[in-house]
């Protein structure tokens, strides 16, 4: 039997960008010691108090079908958090709880786009973006950003595609680049969305990880609340990656229809996980800062290592748990360098090409191992790049 083109065409006929990661995992399975600087997985586990609350909720019987939109208590907590951070009126009716941020991205595109509509996104991009758009039946259209501009999107590049599109997906703080979009950039994006009647899908899962500048949610800009769907998640802010609990913030009518979609697809999130998510959010910003602190600290370590050499360049690391490193001085592509580094030193990084053509000649490093090991791996990476540049 033939499978649908929808499912067989998710990657567009090419790689899904995970090849180096999978090779590293295969080496680990054979007993080879590999330093993994690949995926955005905290080196700490979910905090014990959150797990105790989750266990208590399960033992107290919250293991049946939970309300599909999310429990009222969690929706109220998320709404209050968003309103406090953005000064935009937000109620539980503006919130849908989803099985993680990835499910929220898919649902948001299902809400914004009809089959065949053009859905825009910026390159570099998180590896699942184009496949998510294809899965929702829309046509992905990438817009390049430039290392020369520190990967800040340019209004002119967006305008070249916006009139024929239905939606635009943005991500700030950005994965993979670590760039935080400036107020100027976000205001220009908002202007174009209003002028050309675009839905804006704003992936804000790294909003608690800002090292320079500040995070501005575009939903807070004039005239944007009614055309913006914000994706959030407990994964990065609270080290709850495996719990799969996220949300969409949007206009009430959009959320009402997204609840219908959830009824026919995911049928909600387990109640005991939602209870634990509420407990985690109730710990406040001090707890979120504690979860983010290792990445801020390792960023400082990385800047020190990189300042002592001149082969590997650092894209401004303003937020998120990643560094985007320029290795073009080696004369290699990001993919070739990543494979070479893995073979020679058993250090696994993500090639820039995994995130689009704009990041060619770069690599993404996740700051997700303990400090001493992270610093040593970066020193080895830089020494390897320097040796390659001298050949």
From TrEMBL:
Cofactor: pyridoxal 5'-phosphate
Zinc listed as a keyword: no
Gene Ontology molecular function: transaminase activity
Keyword Lipid metabolism: no
Catalysed reaction, written as an equation: L-aspartate + 2-oxoglutarate = oxaloacetate + L-glutamate
Residues passing through the membrane, by range: none
Keywords: Aminotransferase, Pyridoxal phosphate, Transferase
Pfam family of the protein (one): Aminotran_1_2
Domain Aminotransferase class I/classII large: 53-380
EC number: 2.6.1.1
Family note: Belongs to the class-I pyridoxal-phosphate-dependent aminotransferase family.
Protein name (record): aspartate transaminase
């Amino acid at each position: 039997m033939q499978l649908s083109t929808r499912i067989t065409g998710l990657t567009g006929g090419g790689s899904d960008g995970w090849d180096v990661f999978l090779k590293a995992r295969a080496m680990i399975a054979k007993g080879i010691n590999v330093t993994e600087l690949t995926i955005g997985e905290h080196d700490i586990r979910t905090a014990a108090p959150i797990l105790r609350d989750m266990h208590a909720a399960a033992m107290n019987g919250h293991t049946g079908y939970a309300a599909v939109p999310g429990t009222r208590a969690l929706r109220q907590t998320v709404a209050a958090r968003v309103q406090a951070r953005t000064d935009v009126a937000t109620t539980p009716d503006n919130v849908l709880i989803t099985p993680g941020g990835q499910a929220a991205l898919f649902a948001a595109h299902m809400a914004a786009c009809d089959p065949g509509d053009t859905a825009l996104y910026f390159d570099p991009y998180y590896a699942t973006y184009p496949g998510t758009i294809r899965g929702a039946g829309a046509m992905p259209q990438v817009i390049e950003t430039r290392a020369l501009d520190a990967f800040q999107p340019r209004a002119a590049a967006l305008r070249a595609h916006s009139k024929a599109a239905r939606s635009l997906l943005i991500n700030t703080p950005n994965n993979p680049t670590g760039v935080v979009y400036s107020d100027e950039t976000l205001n220009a994006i908002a202007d174009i969305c209003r002028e050309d009647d675009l839905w804006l899908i704003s992936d804000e899962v790294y909003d608690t990880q800002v090292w320079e500048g500040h995070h501005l949610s575009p939903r807070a800009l004039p005239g944007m609340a009614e055309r913006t769907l914000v994706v959030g998640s407990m994964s990065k802010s609270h080290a709850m990656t495996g719990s799969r609990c996220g949300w969409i913030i949007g206009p009430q009518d959009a959320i009402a229809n997204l609840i219908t979609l959830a009824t026919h697809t995911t049928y909600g999130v387990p109640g005991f996980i939602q209870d634990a998510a509420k407990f985690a959010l109730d710990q406040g910003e001090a707890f979120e800062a504690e979860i983010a602190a290792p990445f801020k600290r390792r960023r400082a370590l990385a800047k020190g290592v990189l300042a002592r050499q001149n082969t590997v360049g650092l894209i401004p690391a303003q937020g998120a748990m990643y560094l985007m490193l320029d290795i073009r001085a080696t004369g290699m592509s990001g993919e070739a360098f990543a494979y070479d580094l893995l073979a020679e030193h058993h250090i696994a990084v993500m090639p820039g090409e995994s995130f689009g053509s704009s990041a060619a000649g770069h690599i993404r490093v996740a700051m997700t191992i303990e400090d001493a090991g992270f610093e040593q791996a970066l020193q080895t990476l830089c020494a390897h790049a320097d040796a390659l540049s001298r050949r």
